[in-house]
Amino acid sequence: MYNTIVIGAxxxxxxxxxxxxxxxxxxxLVLEQRDHIGGNCYDKKDTYGVLxxxxxxxxxxxxxxxxxxxxxxxTDWYLYPQGHQVVANVGGTLIxxxxxxxxxxxxxxxxxxxxLEQKLIAAYGEGSRVPIMELKKSDDPDIxxxxxxxxxxxxxxxxxxxxxxxxxxxxxxxTGRVPVLISRDNRYFQDKYQGVPLDxxxxxxxRMLDYENIxxxxxxxxxxxxxxxxxxILFDGxxxxxxxxxxxxxxELFDCRYGRLPYRSLRFDFEHLEQxxxxxxxxVVNYTVSEDFxxxxxxxxxxxxxxxDGTTIVREYPFAYSGAEGEIPYYAILNADNEALYEKYRQxxxxxxxxxxxxxxxxxxxYNMDAMARxxxxxxxxxxxxxx
Length: 388
Ligand code: UDP
Fold this sequence. Notes:
There is one protein chain. The strands form six sheets. This protein has a seven-stranded mixed sheet. It is globular and about 75 Å long. The chain is built from 13 helices and 22 strands. β1, α1 and β2 (28-32) form a beta-alpha-beta unit. α3 (101-107) runs antiparallel to α4. By secondary structure, it is an alpha+beta fold. The chain is 32% helix and 24% strand. The chain starts with a strand and ends with a helix. The structure holds uridine-5'-diphosphate.
C-alpha cells in the first residue's frame, strides 16, 4: 500500500516525504509521534495570541538558492531587513555578537581599537571569520589579549551553561559556528536569506505535506507500526520492501542497548508580559557572563508579528538529557566517544536495504535547517536514482 515510510515530520522528514511523493510518485506514509508536524521548528499562537516557537527560537538562514527556492514553494518569507542581529549582555552593556570590529571599537578605546583592528586585518585578512579557538592560538600578545577578552566575555560562561563544558572541551565545530568576524558586519549569520516563514513555520509544513500521495499519522510512535531488526523491516507485522527514512533518535530505535547517546536538552521558560515591548532592543539577547539561562528571545521581533497584545519572551535553560519522559534531545554532544557509540548503533542498520538515516537525531549531527533540507533533497534524489 505504501512505497515509502518516513519517521518524523520535521524538516528532514517533511522535505524527503514531499520530494519522494511528488517527484518520485511514491505513496508516502509519515509517522509522527507528536501531535503536530514541523518537528522542533513548530510554532503556534500562545494563549495570548502571540506567535511563539514552542521548541526555542528558529531562524531560517541560507546561501543555498536551491533550498530557498524549494521552501519558497510552500511559504512567503518575513526576511529581516538588517539580517538577524544578536547582542550579548556583558555586565549590563550590550555588545554585537559575533564579536566583530564594531564590538572591538566598543570594548577598547579608540586608539587601541584602531591598532588592534589593523593587526587583525593583517593577520587574518579583511572579511575573514576566525573561530575563537583559532584566535586563541595566536602568538601575538595583542591578538591574544582580544582572544582572551572574547573567550571570557562571550564564550566561556555561555558554553558552560549550554554544554556543561568549557569551549576547549567541546567540538571546535560548535564554537566555530559563531566566529570572530574581521568586518563591521553585525549580523549573526552571513547568509543572503535570513528570516522566518511569513505566516509561520507550521503552515509551511502543512503545505509541504498536503499532497495527494502523502498520508500523515500523528501521535504514532514508529515502534507501534514498524519493527526494525538487523535482518529486515516489518510494517504492521509484514515484511516491508519499500524505503524507510528514519529521522528519530537511533539509540531509541534499538532500545538503547549500548547505552544512551548523550544529548543536551533545554527547558524553555515562556513569559507573557502585559506591555507592548520587553525593551531589550533585539529579538535575541545572549547572557554570556551572568544568569543561569543562555538567552532571552522576544518573539514579536523574531516573527514580525504586528498584532500582538502584550509580548511573549522565552528564557532557555540547558541541561543534560536523561531520556526521562517529556525531555527532548536537542543537541548531539559531538566528541570522539559519542561518535563511536553512534557508529555502533549505525552498524546495526548497515545490513538493511532501503533504510536511511536522516537528520539531527538520526545522524547525531548539528545541522541547520537549510543544510537539513539540502540533505533531504539529496537523499530523495539518491533513492530515486536507485529505484526510479
Ligand atoms: N556561543 C557562546 N556565546 C554566544 C553565542 C554562542 O559561547 O554568545 C557558543 C556556545 O557554545 C553555543 C555555540 O557557540 O552553543 C553555537 O552557538 P549557536 O548560536 O549557533 O547555537 P544554537 O543557536 O544552535 O543554539
